[in-house]
Design brief:
400 residues, alpha+beta, seven-stranded antiparallel sheet, five-stranded mixed sheet, 15 strands
Length: 400
């Protein structure tokens, strides 16, 4: 295992192992509720070996450290359709921007790792529009239900497996504050009813990720308390919650200088995490887009914490070994559009929002859950919603 030092952090390379005035009221406080066993105690392991399964030491590391890197898990053949699907999504966005008079050049000659940046240069916020897309391409569906991936997930949560409503395509364009996510726990974006639910995340890059192009960092062992520390909102000019280092050390019993681990994950590798481990992404200082996909799973019989907006999708049933996932409804549901339609139907916002295809603001109930110590256009947009509409989510985009 190669280890280097960077700003006091361990780097894992291909390894296995003046105050601002508040204008939004906050009801958030550090939760005293703890479920450490949900994140530290593995379920009974499958009695029969299946392709892709982890070794006992790897399973132990996941539950002890809160994360695991498997460097050569996926093949080029498995990832190529995903890359092709991303290119198709970028092309669709370019056509939409062009038809709307937002850009003059579709940049058709540019490649996957440059084109969105060129669109962003013409219409700032293009990458946010890409980030907000909610339609699930077939290639993403097939990767999400990849048997070898599900065999690993079974080792973490047991044989009943569902996909969490939140999946994300991350388009980390170079030198973009809105693509650089600060320290947080995923549970901070969800309803606290799901704190007892272990949610497994597979963070899958579509190119080699390094310190230069914005790889991930985690705080080893930060999940062991089984609680959500107090976050604040919102970081810089973004919609992201932020977890202060001092608060992290106090509430989660970690040593920042000792426990931060930088994970450089190669193409084909996966960073496995849980929903309680503190993590962030570094800034992309390269000249390429750092594309990645994050997929999540949990026990379908436990709460997802996704505010009642969209259900989990069942992928495996212990009672039916031949069960096949039915994507028809789930894949067609754009959660962003669903929210707007609901708000219009309930008379909480005007129907003109249905036609606002180029809105680059992101809001959500985490802005009501946590104290707002810094405001920007995203929190202002949230503030303009009626008090009753605040509780309805417009997306979960607070990852990496």
């Amino acid at each position: 295992m190669a280890k280097l030092l960077l700003r006091g952090a361990t780097i894992l390379r291909y390894c296995l192992h003046a105050p601002t005035r508040r204008f939004l009221s906050s009801t958030a406080a550090t939760s005293h509720v703890r479920f450490p066993e949900s994140y530290t105690v593995p379920p009974p392991q499958p009695p029969i070996w299946r392709p892709g399964q982890l070794t006992p030491p790897q399973v132990e590391q996941y539950f002890n450290d809160g994360f695991l890197v498997t460097p050569d898990f996926l093949t080029k053949e498995e990832l190529e359709p995903v890359r092709d699907a991303v290119e198709g999504l970028v092309d669709t966005l370019a056509e939409k921007l062009y038809a709307g008079g937002k850009i003059k050049d579709k940049c058709k000659g540019a490649g996957l790792f440059e084109r969105l940046t060129l669109l962003d240069n013409q219409f700032p916020g293009s990458s946010v529009l890409m980030h907000k897309l909610g339609i699930l391409p077939k290639a993403f569906q097939e990767l999400w239900t990849n048997d070898r991936l599900l065999n690993v997930v079974e080792q973490f949560i047991g044989p009943d497996i569902a996909g969490h409503p939140v999946w994300n395509l991350r388009c980390k364009t170079p030198d973009n504050e809105e693509a650089t996510v600060p320290w947080h726990q995923d549970n901070a974006y969800l309803d606290d009813i799901c704190l007892e639910t272990l949610q497994v995340t597979a963070w899958i890059p579509l190119l080699d990720t390094t310190v230069t192009n914005g790889c991930m960092q985690v705080v080893q062992g930060g999940h062991r308390e089984g609680k959500t520390a107090t976050h604040t909102c919102c970081a810089g000019g973004t919609w992201y919650v932020d977890l202060d280092i001092a608060e992290m050390e106090k509430s989660l019993n970690v040593d920042y200088n000792r426990d931060v681990v930088t994970c450089e994950v190669p193409l084909g590798g996966i960073l496995w995490m849980n929903n309680a481990i503190p993590h962030r992404s570094l800034e992309n200082r390269s000249n390429q887009i750092r594309w990645s996909l994050d997929l999540r799973w949990q026990d379908p019989n436990k709460p997802s914490g996704f505010h009642g907006l969209k259900d989990c999708i069942v992928m495996r049933k212990v009672s039916d070994p031949t069960y096949k996932t039915n994507w028809t409804k789930f894949a067609a549901e754009d959660r962003q559009q669903m929210v707007v339609e609901r708000l219009v139907k309930e008379g909480k916002v005007g129907k003109e929002l249905l036609d606002d295809q180029f809105n680059t603001e992101i809001t959500g109930p985490w802005m009501d859950r946590w104290e707002v110590t810094h405001h920007n256009r995203h929190t202002i947009a949230f503030h303009k919603l009626s008090q009753s509409a605040k509780k309805t989510i417009t997306g979960w985009h607070g990852d990496q």
